[in-house]
Request: fold
Amino acid sequence: MRKNKNQPNKLIILIILLLLIIAGLFYLMHRSARQVNQSYPVNETATIAPATKLYKSLSSLGGTKVDANSVVKVDRYYLVKANKQQQTFARVQVNGKTYYVLAKDLQISLDNDVNKYVAQLGYPHVKISQQINDKFIKRGYASSTGMPQGVVIHDTGTEYSTLSGEARYMAQNYKTDQVFVHTFIDAQEIRNIADTKYMADGAGPKANPYYVQFEMPHEYSAGAFAKQVANAAYYTAYILKKNNLPVIKGAKDGTGTVWTHDMVTRYLGGTDHQDPTAYWNKTANKYFGTTYDVNDFIQLVQVYYNHM
Reply:
């Protein structure tokens, strides 16, 4: 019986086609696995280390690797869902070309001396402690998703008070004052006293139904102030990351995710407080000879956010 000499060739062709199909399916799965949920513009300078992978696009498997430390311009961040996990990518300019890199691979260049001090400390932060007080009323957020839309930052405005004393005072006087925040933050502690699944009542009717809120007692040394700012930036990044929110400064049109109480007063209304503007500036000037504002804070928040 004569054998068909074409059979080996057909088998090879079938194997090749099968491999091509598998490769195509893998590529499509990889492409569809990266879904951009949100993006936002920035203007940052950063350093990327050798061997960092640079992608040609958010859906591409291809790319290149950095040969040496490279200074890059970051102009946009992307919140991406990849293989059921949330990832943050940055769009960077390298030698006149556009690439995408995992945000955790960036080392952002910090401008403010307080932030630089935090960087020298290795970007420290403490763990969030849960000491929920059930006496605070539980009311859902008014957002369409029922989730918070950002964070409002306060300082207590009381000199030489302590975190424990401020938290205790708030709880003891809640029945008459009807004021509370979710969390208190100092150099040593991040204490969550009210469930962040529900709104707080510390920034007026225009902000309360939409934002997680925290208070900062005053600190009285360079190290303590820097560590408090670091803890606050970490906590802000944690809340934003937990709720799949970007790091965007609050604006006059009501958009944005990071707000000071002062910004709520000026842009949203319903309150007249101006914290923590004076506290930040006074303390930064006393111990670091510089100013400190929400723009400086947001830059630090982004660093913590990128590494979560």
